[in-house]
Specification:
60% helix; 3 helices; elongated; 70 residues
Length: 70
């Protein structure tokens, strides 16, 4: 019986999470070239999107440092 390495399982899970986030956001992405380059580009784009989003949270969740920033 062939064994699946932990690295393969980890990489597959990570890629699935990225694909799921793309689906949830209604984004499509065509992968071209090297897998690592494609993954880097996708993560860069997702980080750009995330950094422009505001995450709702209640006043009870504010830390003192967060409240000081406004």
């Amino acid at each position: 019986m062939a064994r699946i390495s932990r690295k393969l399982v980890s990489d597959s899970f990570y890629q699935h999470e990225i694909e799921e986030e793309l689906r949830e956001r209604g984004l499509s992405w065509s992968f071209h070239g090297d897998d690592n380059d494609a993954l880097t580009l996708v993560l860069r784009k997702l980080n750009e999107i995330r950094s422009s989003e505001l995450y709702p949270h209640s006043d009870a969740q504010y830390s003192e440092a967060c409240a000081a920033k406004g």
